[in-house]
Amino acid sequence: MSNRLRKDKTYTMDDLAAELGLSKSTVSRALSGSGRIGADTVARVKECAERLGFRPNLTAKALAGQRTLNLAAVMPQEATASMMMFYHECLSGMVVRGARSGYNILVCMQDDNDTVPLEDVVRNRKVDAVILTQLKHDDKNVALLKKENFPFVVIGSGAGENIAHVDSKMIESCAAFAVQCVSKLETGGNVLFVCGSLNVEANNNRLSGFLSAMENSHFEGIQYAICTDVADVENDLSVKDWNLILCSDDVVCLRVMEALKRLEVQIGKDVLLASFHDSILFETSMPPVSALRVDAFTLGEKSTDVALKMLDGIQYEKMNYVDCSFEMRSSTGK
Amino acid sequence: MSNRLRKDKTYTMDDLAAELGLSKSTVSRALSGSGRIGADTVARVKECAERLGFRPNLTAKALAGQRTLNLAAVMPQEATASMMMFYHECLSGMVVRGARSGYNILVCMQDDNDTVPLEDVVRNRKVDAVILTQLKHDDKNVALLKKENFPFVVIGSGAGENIAHVDSKMIESCAAFAVQCVSKLETGGNVLFVCGSLNVEANNNRLSGFLSAMENSHFEGIQYAICTDVADVENDLSVKDWNLILCSDDVVCLRVMEALKRLEVQIGKDVLLASFHDSILFETSMPPVSALRVDAFTLGEKSTDVALKMLDGIQYEKMNYVDCSFEMRSSTGK
DNA sequence: GTGAAAGCGCTAACAG
DNA sequence: CTGTTAGCGCTTTCAC
């Protein structure tokens, strides 16, 4: 073994080339599989790389190839528990899909309206594309990315048709889920929608979904009301005999469950209950609560897929959708 | 303006050098502030960089400087809701601290026992150091990192004294919190500790903390028991009149609350209740539940700080601690 | 105090 | 099919 092959050294293509009596570029081609190259050479090179435990220096590769092999995932720094779960699952999806193409995910967290972190990452060229996991009204990140002409994909709705996005069609999904729940009420009845803060964009979508379901489905003998003040929900709960209660999210739903228990109303029997946002707590709560489940992992996966297609100049859809699933449990009478 | 100064171009140091009639190396020194350099030159260079909107190509900087300016945060892909919150907050801390030193955080998610993602990131030199947010018994990541002689920091306990770590002293904190709760029982009584799966390392620590509190504090007239089967907690709850129930985490605690309500036991009055793991749900639950709060953000921040010190060859402590706080709420009688 | 030149490790024409 | 030669954009000796 020649002198340059010391143990514990991190080998470069030069080392492989020297060891094999080939040139660096041949080694590069053999390893990347691109360009014209002999099959036996490829085999020799690969064997040698394997034997020496060669790993390419991706920073050098990035510089030479003008690609960082990194994507940025932008998410808010402050978030509620259920949003954090959503982001974590999204992130998983991105990481998994990215890994399949040799890409890593770099996180970029920001407080409202502070685009500096994203700006740095983009302008310093630490990533090749960015994925926005949340959209604000008049989003500054979008403005920045457009101005810089930087590739990006949005998770969620509201970005418009010209922007590549992956959406779970919240409004439509909520509507369909509401219909499914309401149809359990075979003889009609009273439906209450308990909604969290309307400052949260997602809650607006849920409310829209609920309203469109109620207005378009022409249910027989169904009346409905909206409660937007969770703190005071116990009042609304006691004014009437509700037959179905729909909650905007898991936190709201847990509050409603507590109130219902205090009022000694039996969930799943006296009243049906469901949530527009699932939570692991619902699987084992008493009773288990039906909920709409957003497939955050797939959203992350798909958005990354779109971003990578963009980068590779492969044809891609601007509008992409991931279906929600209905987790029907005993709170809606099974 | 010379020809090379087109709008929308991303400038390089060569461009600045040409524009200023200086050499590239002078520009580099002026911008980095290192080496001998004239104050007026620095000013001129900075002004020009500013004017042209120059941003260094960090990939090139990384290659030349043999530093990626990235850290890896390793976290499990599968996690419970409260763990995800913990990771998200940790990540925030890392991102914030990293940004202060020009570092970005790259996420590395793995299922149990699959070290491949971390291995890739380390061996392909995509990061300068790694932060482990969770430790398993006989941790394979630790083994890998040690073998590769790669800088890393661990968040949590159990890594041993030779490994740099940032810990929230869970055992001690749980013990202290338990003491605080038990001392509410002025006339003695029965204490039950309801513990989640002991396969989770954190639960072992919580149990140890609880036990050490009970054994070392010599409370008068206090008896205690452990329940490790949450599914069957209602049984344990009914065999005796408990005066204080301590729960290992928020999910467990919510189950206990439900069971207690079914048994028509008044929390905060008939029985005191507290959790060794806080959750936003506890702030507004009925009643609000006292809990031990781990400062995940600071753990993330501090671990990153340690990692950066390592990389800069600055003196650092191997053992670092972040205090937990006691959120005392009305479930323990205020 | 500043410039010239080499080099970080890889890719990609362009020759042969 | 393989080798030679330039870079990618920055840092860092080493001269001057």
Strands ordered across the widest β-sheet of chain A: 2-1-3-4-5-11
Mean pLDDT of chain A: 91
Instruction: Give the oligomeric state of the chains in this entry, treating copies of one chain as homo and distinct chains as hetero.
Output: homodimer
* End-to-end C-alpha gap of chain A: 71 Å
Count of DSSP strands of chain A:
12
Q: SSE order of chain A, as H and E?
A: HHHHEHEHEHEEHEHEHEHEHEHEE
Outline type of chain A: elongated
Beta content of chain A comes to 15-25%
Quick take:
The structure is a homodimer of 334-residue chains. With 334 residues, chain A is of the alpha/beta class. Chain A has helices spanning 13-20, 24-32, 39-52, 58-65, 81-100, 116-123, 140-148, 170-182, 201-216, 233-238, 250-262, 280-284, 296-312, and strands spanning 70-76, 104-110, 129-132, 152-155, 165-167, 189-194, 222-227, 244-247, 272-275, 290-293, 319-321, 325-327.
3D architecture notes:
Two copies of one chain form a homodimer. Chain A is α/β, with parallel strands linked by helices and 334 residues long. The first copy, chain A, is built from 13 helices and twelve strands. In chain A, the strands form two sheets. The first copy, chain A, has a six-stranded parallel β-sheet with strand order 2-1-3-4-5-11, sandwiched between helices. In chain A, strands 7-6-8-9-10-12 form a six-stranded mixed β-sheet. In chain A, helix 9 (201-216) links the parallel strand 6 and strand 7. The mean pLDDT of chain A is 91. The interface between A and B is large, with 54 and 54 residues. Strand 2 (104-110) of chain A pairs antiparallel with strand 2 (104-110) of chain B. The structure holds a DNA duplex (16 and 16 nucleotides).
